[in-house]
Design a protein that fits this description.
Layout: H1 8-22, H2 27-34, H3 38-46, H4 53-63, H5 67-71, H6 81-96
Helix pairs in contact: 2-3, 2-4
Length: 102
């Protein structure tokens, strides 16, 4: 059976959880630092969804990571053409604002 390619939203969801754990934070701590409810953080980590750049920025500040950490993927061959296009656009936006500290 062929494996389903992960969406960019799934990658971001997985990366949020990974960055939080690497920072040694609980979901509550991340929620408090980012200004969100714990239920929202739990949903972000478990139910992939599209998030705004504002949400991405708040998470990056709370986690003390660059936005590229949350949207990076280790194996681009896993992604569909549409997901790669979205990733490319997101990275282009980040490059435009790279002088902005998250």
């Amino acid at each position: 059976m062929k494996k389903k390619k992960p969406s960019l939203a799934e990658t971001v969801s997985r990366n949020i959880r990974k960055a939080r754990l690497e920072a040694g934070m609980t979901q509550k701590e991340l929620a408090d630092r980012a200004g969100f409810k714990i239920s929202y953080i739990a949903r972000l980590e478990t139910k992939p969804q599209n998030i705004s750049l504002t949400v991405l920025e708040k998470l990056c500040v709370a986690l003390s990571v660059d936005a590229r950490v949350l949207i990076s993927c280790s194996d681009l061959s896993k992604y569909s053409g549409q997901a790669l296009e979205k990733l490319s656009r997101a990275l282009s936006l980040l490059n435009e604002i790279k002088d902005t500290t998250f």
